Amino acid sequence: AVRGRLWGRRVTPLVTALRDGRLATHIRHCPPIRLATCSQAGPSRARTSASMKYGKYIESKRRPEWSDHYIDYKGLKDLVKAQAQEAGTGETSFSPRTTSLTIQRINNKKDSAEERFFAKLEQDVDKVSKFTEHLVDKLRADLNKLQSKVVNIESENQATKDVLIKEAQRIGDDFLQLEKYVNLNYMGFHKILKKHDKAIPAAPCRQFYVAHLHQQPWVQGNYSDLLVSLSNVYSKLRGDSSGTKNDDAAQGFVRSTTKYWVRNEDVSTVKHHVLQHLPVFQHDTNNFTGDAQLINSVYLDNASAELYHGRLDKKPGAIALRIRWYGSQPPSIAFIERKTHRESWKGEESVKERFILPDDKVVPFLDGEYSLDNALADMDAQAAKKGKSVKEDEKEKFIELFTEVFNAVDAKQLRPMVRTQYMRTAFQIPFDSTVRISLDTNMCMIKENPEDGPTCAATGRWYRDPELPIHRTEITRFPHAILEVKLSLKEGQTAPTWVQELLDSGYLTEVHKFSKFIHGTATLFPDMVRAVPYWVDDESVRPSMVASAPLPQEAAAVRPVAEEPAPSGTLLPKPRVHRPGKATPEMEELTHPLLGDEPTLKLMPDPDQVRGFGSPVTRRAAAAGEPSWLMKALGLVPRKLTTTTLMKIEPKTFFANERTFLAWLHMAITVSSIAAALLGFASGGTPDKQDAAITRHLVELIALLLLPLGVFMVVYALYVFTWRADNIAKKKAHHVDDRVGPLWLCGLVTVCLSAIFVICCIDFYEVMHQPDAPPHGP
Fold first, then answer.
1. Mean of pLDDT values over 692-705
2. In a domain? residue 414
3. Quick one: which of 520, 552, 559, 635 has the fewest CB in 10 Å?
4. What is the pLDDT of residues 166-183, one digit of tens each?
5. CB 132 within 8 Å of CB 32
């Protein structure tokens, strides 16, 4: 919002409610342009080069067979120029509220550049809309034909399956091309409207027309059902078999999880790759539309943010407690979940455990009024309705987990603190958790207790009242999608090769131990936290955090309120809501209390460094991603890792790097000093011309061997120091020790000393075979 971005361009119920000052409890699926992937930034923007104008860019990226169906950017640009010339000689935009039918205006003509511009703009919007609808209908028809072919695929041979797999890949690739087409035109309309307002500031139209653009079918449509259908086709071609559903009251999950950031414009490409190997998991087919499901998670913490700091420091046994529900409707049941951190270097895995409570029992549970006996009685009654009985082992697990969570809530005085809300697309063979991939989009974090209204405890609720307005400082929208790779592998079992292909594609950026709870708490409660995660310094995350920062006058006004809290349950006056689309001068001066003046991290790679799946690597990408010959020679090339564990970076790590650098310099200076002294000593002597060449230049030869060695040590030490310091600063997940460089240096020292030994032996031999030669001077 600070930089003029229109957060929440898609008019989903959530975004509409936020603009109206209300919190929605549901989100509709997003438009087609990202294979129905939800994102708060609207259709993904085309990747334009900084040095290339958009007119040339759109010409270079358009498909030849679709050339007649793109936005006429050049024609609209010419009309903007003509309109600017007409506006320069005409009257200003000011006019009274009344008019006269007999007063003639300056430049009063029917076919003005302004009329032609808006007519052509509307014509191009309609052209893109109709062509998009035509392509989607064609893809639906092709997909229906493919589905009819795979009905009895079990009886077909492998050759037939391979042909059908290629056809499914072709449909998926065509859908990605359609997304690129829509994004290219979408960005073109934004660019030309921005150019119009810049050229004709007296008659701005961008803000109004962008809102009109958002209502177009090709922007607001939801075609995620195509993804689900394509996923079902792949599942039948693979012959996937479902696992067994776990209906236990207490459930536990032990698995390794790695989290990645994904650019919004790459979400569809990642989805298409994953669904070729894993089906889209539909938790509830009756209430599941599209490929994603809304998830709300209310995290608990206390006034000192104890759970936040425990999870941030990765203390052994640190827990996170949350209450989660699924779907767009108000919750009827809630999942009480506890995540426990374990040290991976000890061979332990983090654990997620949960049990189920009815919605009306959550508040009594948090207040300590819903005891274990009540929970067991309700569990037995629920099982009796189904004609079943609760197993003893299941009851023991439930008792243990319920008691531990109940005691933690009571002892730590935990209350609802922050909510995470997002659309999740899960890829998994039903009820088989061996390999599970989830993709979270449209992610936002919200304060569960309003700043100027009654808290959840005052209203007797465990989640925020949807009717209460949301201030700008009570919500933050994360700019990227979050992909999680969750593996539950047996000992000796390795991850599938397609997972490694996904990791090597360049579309994913690993962010070690990223946490939605930690990010939301650090962004929305800067006065409560004593430490922040490292990723807040990333340049791509800063704008979203700054957008939630309080204005200077708001921060000053909040301090007295903190000293004298209002009575419980009173409704304070609502502050003015700053909408994201309006970048006022005050908004432009926003600074988040936890951020410095400039970002210090760049975790996301440049778009031109993305390798893709099976596509040839460009020269620029190869130059950026391929290690240099010096790194290969010194053994500084990172190894391929299936699971990455990043070391904990502390200040002493940087000091250790400096000490190593100084140790190499000490050795290099010693060798260089010896060589320089020998050269100085040799220049003062006058050896006999009758001596052999080696004898006459013995000292110079030794010095010329040692001096380059000292220079090489200095260069090596400086190179390794800068390389290691860069990796430590970026927290890259590969080793920072040099395993080859010291061996090279030892080898060079050995060669130099051996050469000096051979030269001295030759010199000694020559001296011994010249008995009549006069003795050498001192």
1. 69
2. yes
3. 559
4. 898 889 888 888 888 988
5. yes
Bridge partners of 322, per DSSP, are 299, 337
Cα gap 164→174, rounded to integer Å: 15
For 575, residues 6+ apart whose C-beta sits below 8 A from its C-beta are 452, 471, 554
Scanning the structure block, which residue is given the tokens 């220049």? 683
- For the whole model, what pTM was predicted? 0.67
Q: Report d(CA 525, CA 772) in Å as an integer.
A: 92
> Which of 342, 346, 352, 218 lies closest to 297, judged by CA?
352
| 268 and 163 housed in the same domain | no
Instruction: State the total domains in the chain.
Output: 3
Shared-domain flag, residues 256 and 184: no
Alpha carbon distance 105, 91 (integer Å): 8
Q: Are residues 192 and 274 in the same domain?
A: no
Give the CATH number, domain containing residue 264.
Answer: 3.20.100.30
- Give the residues across from 299 on adjacent strands: 322, 418
The angle subtended at Cα 462 by Cα 456 and Cα 465, nearest 5°, is 60
Distance from C-alpha of 576 to C-alpha of 557, rounded to nearest angstrom: 13
Distance set, CA 363 to CA 214, 323, 458, 647 (Å): 40, 11, 11, 40
Of 190, 225, 260, which residue constitutes the final position of a domain? 225
In single-letter form, the type of residue at position 215 comes to Q
Residue 623 lies in a domain: no
Q: Which domain holds residue 285?
A: 251-551
Q: Which of 519, 551, 583 is the last residue of a domain?
A: 551
In DSSP notation, 606-673 reads PGGG---SSPPPPHHHHHHHSPPHHHHHHT-PPPP-SS--PPPP-HHHHHHHHHHHHHHHHHHHHHHH
Q: Provide the percentage of residues in the chain whose pLDDT is more than 90.
A: 21
Tokens found for residue 413? 């005085």
Q: Contact, 35 vs 228, CB < 8 A?
A: no
Provide the percentage of residues in the chain whose pLDDT is more than 70: 69
Q: If you write DSSP's letter for every residue of 549-572 in order, what string do you get?
A: SPPHHHHHHHHHHHHSPPPTT--P
What pLDDT shows up at residue 402?
93
> Do 115 and 258 lie in a common domain?
no
421, with CB counted inside 10 A (0-12, 13-18, 19+), is buried
Reduced to 3 states (helix: H, G, I; strand: E, B; else coil), residue 321 is: strand
CA distances in angstroms from 665 to 391, 564, 751, listed in the order given: 69, 60, 20
Indicate whether 570 belongs to any domain. no
Point out which residues pair with 280 in neighbouring strands: 427
Alpha helix segments (H runs only) across 150-200: 158-199
Residue 347 lies in a domain: yes
| 333 shares a domain with 275 | yes
Whether 320 and 394 map to the same domain: the answer is yes
> What is the DSSP secondary structure assignment for residue 32, as one 8-state letter?
G
What is the reported pLDDT for 772?
Answer: 58
Shared-domain flag, residues 217 and 262 = no
Start-to-end C-alpha separation, the chain: 81
Same domain, 126 and 165: yes
